[in-house]
Design brief:
3-stranded mixed β-sheet; 11 helices; 7 strands; Immunoglobulin-like; alpha+beta
């Protein structure tokens, strides 16, 4: 599948581009002979952007190997070997020998964590090492490497390790002297609430739900009463202005009279509902506190609610002759 993918990615190049690629490749080979591995690598990378073949990848690996980038070189050798095997390229034998020789030179590092760092994350030269890579061989380039250990609380420390070619080293990371990490998850001991605290924190919890519902109904009733009263007054004004001195009104004002009569009936009803609702809400909210302050006074049993509508408001009548 890799060979097929690579073959599909190589688009048809123009003759001029291919000729430029061949020229760059020849320059790279000359630089390799001269020991200018960095210059040769630069030319080969340009060639690879035009067209990549097992031979080009093989020489890329050679340059990286001589520049000390052993892990990259090993990857290129392996990929070049696979590609060459798919096409039976003449370079297949040379690539295989170079790959085997380099594998024995690449240092290997094994990183483990001590129990006190069980929750820590580790980065090797800026690259995070997941749990699957801890305790396993990690190919690295020769030289010094930095291991960054980061705790969940944000604290971190760095440990350096240096490896030579062919080295295989195991490093167990442990917290340095004086390093203290604060656990991110702590158990909180439940503290019983004293009676006085219960009184303060539960003052609003004693209000029954029905009291809030009654308050809402009462507020709606009071607002409705005001609206009906306004409609009634407007109807009276319209009749006074539209009817003649003999109290005879045009037919067009009949609906106005009906609207006024309906509003005159609905206004006291809505007002009564509003007063009852607000009264019940006030009782539901205040009664528990009154009982706490005077439990033996019997005040709550003496509360009575009498709602009466003014007889003139209830008996308003708008009349006219048609």
């Amino acid at each position: 599948m890799v060979g097929l993918t690579i073959a599909q990615c190589v688009a048809a190049q123009s003759p001029a581009e291919l000729e430029r690629g061949r020229s760059l490749f020849r320059q790279a080979l000359s630089m390799e002979v001269a020991g200018d591995w960095a210059g040769a690598l630069s030319r080969l990378e340009q060639v690879a952007r035009i067209k990549t073949t097992p031979q080009v990848r093989f020489h890329l690996a050679r340059c990286k190997e001589h520049l000390g980038r052993l892990t990259e070189a090993l990857g290129d050798y392996r990929l070049a070997e696979y590609e060459a095997s798919q096409t039976n390229a003449v370079e297949l034998g040379d690539i295989g020998q170079a790959r085997q020789a380099l594998e024995s030179r690449v240092p290997k590092l094994v990183v483990t964590l001590s129990p006190d760092l069980a929750q820590a994350s580790v980065e090797l030269d800026g690259i995070a090492l997941g749990e699957t890579r801890l305790g396993k061989d990690i190919p690295v380039d020769p030289g010094e490497h930095q291991l960054l250990v980061r705790m969940p609380d944000g604290q971190s420390f760095v440990r350096s390790v240096s490896l030579a070619e062919t080295a295989a080293e195991k490093v167990e990371l442990s917290a340095p002297t004086g390093f203290v990490s604060v656990p991110t998850k702590t158990k909180v001991k439940a503290v019983p609430i004293e009676p006085a605290h219960r009184f303060e924190t539960s003052r609003t919890s004693h209000t029954p739900t029905w009291a809030w519902v009654a308050g809402g109904v009462g507020a709606a009733g009071a607002i409705s009463a005001a609206v009906f009263w306004y409609v009634r007054e407007r109807a009276i004004d319209d009749l006074n202005n539209g009817c003649g001195a003999d109290n005879v009104c045009p037919t067009s004002l009949k609906s106005t009279q009906t609207r006024g009569e309906q509003a005159s009936i609905a206004a006291p009803v809505a007002l009564g509902v509003g007063l009852v609702g607000l009264g019940l809400a006030a009782y539901g909210i205040l009664a528990p506190e009154i009982k706490k302050g005077a439990p033996d006074s019997g005040l709550s049993s003496q509360l009575r609610w009498n709602v009466m509508c003014d007889q003139h408001l209830a008996g308003v009548h708008v009349a006219g002759a048609f």
